[in-house]
Amino acid sequence: MKKGGDTPFDAIWTQDGGERGVSEPALLIDVDGFEGPLDLLLHLARNQKVDLARISVLELARQYLAFIAGARAMRLELAADYLVMAAWLAYLKSRLLIPKQKGPDGETAEELAAALQFRLKRLEAMRDAAARLVNRNRLGRDVFARGMPEAIIVERQNQWSATLYDLLTAYAAERQRRAVTNVRIARRTVWSLAEAREILERLIGRASDWTALEGFLIDFLARPDERATAIASSFAATLEMVREGRLEIRQESAFSALYLRSRAAAAPKPVEVDHG
Amino acid sequence: MDDGRQFEVMAYDDDVIPAANAENPAARLHLQEAMRMAEAILFASAEPVTEKALAARLPGETDVGAVLAELQRFYDRRGVNLVRTGDAWSFRTAGDLAFLMSREQVSQKKLSRAALEMLAIIAYHQPVTRAEIEEIRGVETSKGTIDTLMETGWIRFRGRRRTPGRPVTYGTTPAFLDHFGLEELRDLPGIDELKGAGLLSPRMPANFNVPMPLADPDALAEDEDALTDVDLEELGLLTPKGGDD
Amino acid sequence: MDDGRQFEVMAYDDDVIPAANAENPAARLHLQEAMRMAEAILFASAEPVTEKALAARLPGETDVGAVLAELQRFYDRRGVNLVRTGDAWSFRTAGDLAFLMSREQVSQKKLSRAALEMLAIIAYHQPVTRAEIEEIRGVETSKGTIDTLMETGWIRFRGRRRTPGRPVTYGTTPAFLDHFGLEELRDLPGIDELKGAGLLSPRMPANFNVPMPLADPDALAEDEDALTDVDLEELGLLTPKGGDD
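The joint structure predicted for all components is written out below.
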């Protein structure tokens, strides 16, 4: 969750509930039209034209991954959270194909899928609620107050008006103005170790079988121009986790694929590291 | 124009004084005069007037609730209605006459979709923290969106959640009720169904029932117990309150 | 209040529809609906409405004169009357109820930015002296700003700092908590919540902090003396400046 939310695509959404850029799952790509991966998923789910409770999460995962692959093929810049979602769905998809298997946290793939459906349903419910709200009879649009009020009847204590928001905004702005002098950090174009590690822990940390670092992770997470930094940071993070005994790593020969797996799931094996 | 309306009994020839009061001429006169006064005060103000402020201006022994109930009934089917929002009352033009009022319409800034979505989430899930809003929407919230909503005067800081970190919680204001013509938060469209479906919960409720393509939805999982009545009651009670205050 | 009035026949239980029209149900319905429409238009209009303007907005076949006459009769002895000025019509509070209207229209005053800033600093940093406030803000405080804040009833003199010059310390009042909907001072958001709410940049310098507001606003700090009667007298007589220069 880094840059994804800084400037959501508010400008695109100045119309209530308007049509999005994509009307077919057949990839008319306009990723800027979506407010985050959940929004995109909800749109794809609606295209299944069934009740949200009955969508196929597997199919949804396929469509999402195809969408991301298409966007990447066209070299569209995708925010990081789209890619994290892609990696998670790839993971979920692989688990769903082997039903009734428990993950390291004891949850089944079906439970993970249900949790995703719950989130989609809840988001859709809030969208509907917003639409119903704005379509009510609204003051100043459908119903009106007295046009020539003769007096303002207010309680005495409201004479001075200021809200908590005003107060906090003033305080924060004032303190910030005096505190921030010339600190400005340029946007990073490399993956930090912490980011890489967080993603690794989320994905590889629970995989019990040998998984290729490139095939599984890098393909979904990095833009082509970020491959080098993504591999470097992920690899460094991997080594750190190996040192802590949380991960195993294997490489057949120099420059070949790196395989990882969660240590908890496997019997101890010698660790060999060749630099690639 | 609005042919579905019932014209048979109109407020214009309605006898609004209840029979009970009519028996006591003194009480009846008092009620009628209090109604005139309340009517004058409410008509004079463009903003909703609280019952407290109204009571302060009416003669001491007035039953303000009864006066307002009578006035509301009296104006029920007229061109102007007496409406309640929270603990305040105001006269507003009847909703079915909106088509007449284009001349009075004030141009309103259109809210972005993000802002509308956030407004709905705050209204239905309040008190709700920013992290919870972002969890529901799946994206971070820009400061501009919050500012825009704050400017409308429809949302406010409510307080702080008594959990670690004590995050700020958001809720709606009386102006929100006034603008959307809601008597109270429990009148939010569809709130009961949403609550019943568990969709106002921060996390997926245990009884959230999604048929699995790969599993028998009724079969309990190995780590799952059947729900008892007590559980169900708790789940109902534990869902975040969607507007009982 | 107005005992000379005739209460026997009140508008509230008056049958306003004239007998002549009652004979024709269709005409009667039409008149009633036109009355609703005229009532809404007159109510919402920002200025008196001429008969011509009204006619333009009512259905074509409406007898506007009759509608207005009926409405006027209907509102005749109510809290609000329909009055004609020149050739235009508007609702006005009944003359005998004018005493109900607050003549000294209580105007909503907004706090200046400087006052808000100072208030916020007092809230977070109390007990705080004027010199300290100026140090935080980096500007001198005008006496008017302090006076304004005192007038709101949200700040108070707390005591005197036990340092040379014994400057007066400022703090907030219970009315402050009440107005801003805070249960206690500790409900003021801390640094993390200010960041979480998007009010502070997430990238503040490491040495930046926001003080933890007082747990007990009434307890004196270690280096603070209570105000004596002499102090109070002085502060009342002299200008309520910080006295720390």
